[in-house]
Amino acid sequence: MKKLVLSILLCSMLIGCLAAFPAHADGDVHVVAHWKFQNVDGYYVGDIEKDDLQFIDLSGNGNDLVTKVVGNGSQLDIFTWDTGAEAGTTKTDSALKLNNTKILAETVDPYDAGETSYSGGYTSGKYLQTILGAPMNTNEFEEGISVDIIFKLSAELDNDYNRYTGIFSRQGVIEDQNEPPFSIALSEWNDDAASGMMGDNQTWLQFVHCDNASKVNVEMDEVKIGADGWHHLLVTTDGFSITYYIDGEPLRTFQDIPFIEVGDPSFSWEVGVGRKFGGGHENDCKNENDPAGMIRRLFAGSIAEIRVMDGPIENEDSLFFKPVSYENTPDPATPKDPAEVTEPATETETETETETETETETEAATETETETEPDKGTEADTAEATTGAEAETNKPAETTDGGSQGNGPNVGLIIGIICGAVVLVGVIVFIIVKSKKK
Predict the structure, then answer these.
(1) CA–CA separation, 118 and 123 (whole Å)
(2) Are 333 and 131 in contact (CB under 8 A)?
(3) CA distance 235 to 146
(4) Which of 148, 319, 321, 357 has the fewest Cβ atoms within 10 Å of its own Cβ atom?
């Protein structure tokens, strides 16, 4: 009997210890935004030859990306369609090409060689950013963040003009760190040819993650990439450590990372631009210490897909191994005043609000019966409720080979509570048996 009790006690303690580790179960990881930069109806609206291109957040969360123009970018064919991407099991028929090259910009905005991208000069082009009031603009990702990116570099990247360009980043620059709160960017060329062009040269990735107190800023030169084809990048963190994967292989892990700084809810997330503080130029093309951070670098290359999730995922659940498709697509999102955007309600809060609304409606109905004329607002309320129900129904259904995202309960917490109870019962039984032996 004593051996049995000891075995139960040891097993329960082991399970309890395992459950005590920070866990982000599959059911707890949610897709925050998913953009497919492809020439497919429903993935975008607008005209690629104009400045109104808007890529729809296929997750249905309303984090659409809109076009932003730098300098004389409207005069240039910055956005064009590229051929499809081939990275791992992910295959696409098209992708968005960003032609932010020095060669193209010079045709409308003469480039002074003394005004390097590092010292503050930039010319004309385009990039993308989440719409004003997008929900993810206020998301602090307290459970961590995972970002999938499928991209290709342009052979016309210029080391002086495009280096340290951001691929995906959080708008804004933290003054104490002179870096954005979160940035996935390129770095230097491994061989600065006389032309300065990428050509057959290669570069490596730079990762920045910081707040007002600390900064992780690392150039990962273990793996160099060139303009030789498509690549997949996965960045995933549980809020304590963060790991990079390139083309399905682990690159590096960082420890003790800071949380993402959300200093201004009007700041967006961006694709294809790099920012810092610094001296710029006082005209429409070049700015001086813009509050969101001065634009210095624009991305030249193609992007097929970006997915953002609010917690860690396993490498095998990335887009490199498990492509994700959607049965239907949501309507384009519209900009909102950041003050109107609130954190999503929890399940319990939603239930409480529903109960409160039900009680209020019942009371209102009772009062209406005693009045001579019916409340004219009833029809409007009904229509509003119907619209809300339709919006929920129209949220895109997501299909994938494996589920690393969902809306299930906090499995880790439940397991921890159960195991804790088992440990407690085991200890009590052990004490009782031992006292009886005496």
Answers:
(1) 13
(2) yes
(3) 5
(4) 357
Mean pLDDT of the chain: 75
Across 193-351, the runs of DSSP E, i.e. the strands, are 202-210, 215-226, 231-237, 241-246, 249-255, 269-271, 273-276, 294-298, 300-309, 324-326
CA atoms of 214 and 210, how far apart (whole Å): 6
- Measured over all CA atoms, what is the biggest interatomic distance in the chain, rounded to whole angstroms? 94
Please state, in angstroms and as integers, the Cα–Cα distance from residue 283 to each residue in 70, 78, 110, 320, following that order.
12, 21, 14, 43
What is the rounded average pLDDT of the residues 194-217? 84
Inter-residue contact 241 to 221 (CB < 8 Å): no
In CATH, what number does 29-339 get?
Answer: 2.60.120.200
HSE (CB half, 13 Å, CA atoms) of 269?
Answer: 27
DSSP of 26-51, one letter per residue? GGG--EEEEEE-SS-BTTEES-TTTT
Is the pLDDT assigned to residue 398 strictly greater than 80?
no
Contact by Cβ (8 Å): 118, 296: yes
Structure tokens at 217: 């800023």
Token pair recorded at residue 119: 């010292």
Predicted pLDDT at 211: 79
* Distance of alpha carbon 266 from alpha carbon 385, whole angstroms: 29
Length of the chain: 438
The pTM (predicted TM-score) of the whole model is 0.74
User: To 10 degrees, the CA torsion angle through 70, 72, 74, 80?
Assistant: -70
State phi, psi for 387 to the nearest 5 degrees: -60, -40
Separation CA 239–CA 255 (nearest Å): 9
In whole angstroms, give the CA distance from residue 403 to residue 187: 34
Of 345 and 142, the one with more pLDDT: 142
With b for 16 or more beta-carbon neighbours within 10 A and e for fewer, the 298-329 pattern comes to bbbbbbbbbbbbbbbbeeebbbbbbbbebeeb
